[in-house]
């Protein structure tokens, strides 16, 4: 029994859940996280042998310094934002759609069918409209496949959507190597879009940005005010409760995943017809995954996603800029972006939990 | 009562907090050798936490524990065992595919080779010493709840426990099994063991214990000698003020037949019959109580009627108001959404409140409209009426909440249940199914719920009440039915059967009391 009598103490730090954090405290935590991110980033930059202040200033200049670069930043933010809204719908339902990348590519391919081969058969407004619809249908149907299997047989959507990404990617590779290869090209790549299939610009950027802003408002109301949004929230909160309430769960899952994929497909049309003017295997370029980051940073709030997407776009542009200015290798600048995002996502933990020194608490209860 | 025997456990000034809530605050408890101590308190009064501290599962924030006169630090269940403390939890911790004997020696040091014969002999010897019925070679998955409990107790005794803690041991037992358990406990007490039994059933405290320690909201609320106390005194100490323990059973004339279930058969996940040709009717202005040991098909019965569990045979007829007057509509196999859309006002309070009855992270308004949100036209939600209903429910049912926009999971169990039951009765149901509506609630809220069920009955609702506490069930119900292994007994009048008879019927299907049954 002796060892039981030795004085031992409990763990030093306890993790305690917190509720009802005031908005001001939330922003304070976010601010602290950003400061922490910049400071740790500064260490990395110092280790690379540069002046952190100069590098950060250059990042900002590269993303926001002139109208030209601002337009480029917006071009990155638009597909990211639309895709983020898309994945957030699925996440709200606790359907782990990590297949936005594939849905994005399928949207691009579906729109490409018309953009590459039918551009001369219809008037331009009709063509653009058809491309948008095709893109949404392509992405939406691709999103419905895992939803259907989940609803019918309870398959794991995480693995399913992930695998579908690769199928979509390989399909694009096949198309650019074979049937859709530019006729005169030496390289395996698709032709550039005809001018008629390109989107017109508003304030120097394709009009997708207007659409993105409209979607933010639209889906904010969709999630909070409509019956369908309510059904998504109940299904995500507790599937048994949804069944009890008489919500047609299978329909909700399939319908929501169609919407989720359709938004990714729509984002792809803007990317292809507004920015890249062609389709390559890099068309999606990880946007489907970055969208997940944006969605969670914003806690699935569409307005928050607007801010998060612009923030991520600034980081991306900035890290491109410092690669050329300071000859910082792309891997290092990506580490820098990664660190900043890690801090911003990590601070979510401190918004939900706090650490308590249990020794001190024990002394003065 | 004579306490000249020395104390074997003495807990002083024990405090334990979880996050911001305090489970126990400066609690003292003493246990003497050879006594049965009842630890009495409502749900959330900190009794299980206190015992978990003694059993080494939690470590107290402050306070001291002495065992056999020596101060100790109990940091794990293993430490507790070394001190001779064994706890039998409410949820058993047994390996299903092993035998009783194997479970009992599991985790004990011993030679590589397991001599099952020797073990079984020792276990058998131990069992017969205290009067347990046990077959050491029986697999756990073939055992009834009470047999599993026996294994748990023997597991503690086999490890040499002198101090036994039982956490609500009778919650899952029939009256006969409870009697048997109490006899065993008395034998153990004769043998010099010290026993703590956690409970909130007052008549059990009086029946078995020598002393009772009462906790209220995590603090000591008194210690009494059982011989010199009454149920009323215990309740008053437990609740903090005097509470009437009488359940009113308003007598109203029996109305129309509202629900007729005939030959209802449902299959379980293993394709076995989980409900086997169950038949009964529920009448307006009557409470039909359904008794049965847990897992006898109660959950499936409720869910099948509510359109949430697939029916493989039989029929469910519901008395509906149609344009041509009332008629019995066959609703067998209708999903819950269709039942609601057809204007059938069946209310269902499921057993799992936050997992099925409510959306836990949504607020009260969104939960109140859970069943009715579709009834307004258009694509958009209309929260106006649900908001009004929420405010009204808070007033009428005295729901403690910071406001209608607080997520319901942050509320206490009693308030959660009030929201759920309040929503279900807010659209004037003609049938109300309430599955274990007072489970986990404090006495006052429980009586409030009983009262609400009585009120519904007076309004002419056919109430189906599934309960665990047989005393309450028999007091509240106008008719009673026993489910045993998926089969239903005849519908009986609770005034004409005894609690013991109901207990027999819960265990053995087809067992009938001597006197005649009431026709439904």
Alpha carbon gyration radius of chain B: 25 Å
Global mean pLDDT of chain B: 89
Overall number of strands of chain B: 20
In the CATH hierarchy, the third-tier topology of the largest domain in chain B is known as Rossmann fold
Number of helices, where a helix is a run of at least 4 consecutive DSSP H or I residues of chain A: 14
Largest sheet of chain A: 2 strands, antiparallel
Distance between the termini of chain B: 50 Å
Considering the chains and any ligands shown, give keywords for the structure.
heterodimer, A: 365 residues, mainly alpha, two-stranded antiparallel ribbon, 4 strands, 72% helix, globular, disordered N terminus, disordered C terminus, B: 520 residues, alpha/beta, Rossmann fold, six-stranded mixed β-sheet, 17 helices, 25% strand
Q: How does this model look, in words?
A:
- Chain A is 72% helix and 4% strand.
- Chain A has 365 residues and is mainly alpha-helical.
- Chain A has a domain at 75-305.
- A two-stranded antiparallel ribbon of chain A has the order 1-4.
- In chain A, a hairpin with a 2-residue loop joins strand 2 (201-202) and strand 3 (205-206).
- In chain A, helix 1 runs antiparallel to helix 13 (330-352) and helix 5 (124-153) packs antiparallel against helix 10 (249-276).
- The longest helix of chain A is centred in the middle third of the chain and has 30 residues, at 124-153.
- Chain A is globular, with a radius of gyration of 24 Å.
- Chain A starts with 12 loop residues before the first strand and ends with a helix.
- In chain B, a hairpin with a 2-residue loop joins strand 1 and strand 2 (21-32).
- Chain B has 520 residues and is α/β, with parallel strands linked by helices.
- Chain B folds into two domains: 7-239, Rossmann fold (3-Layer(aba) Sandwich), CATH 3.40.50.300; 247-285 and 292-344 and 477-520, Rossmann fold, CATH 3.40.50.
- Chain B has 17 helices and 20 strands.
- The interface between A and B is large, with 31 and 47 residues.
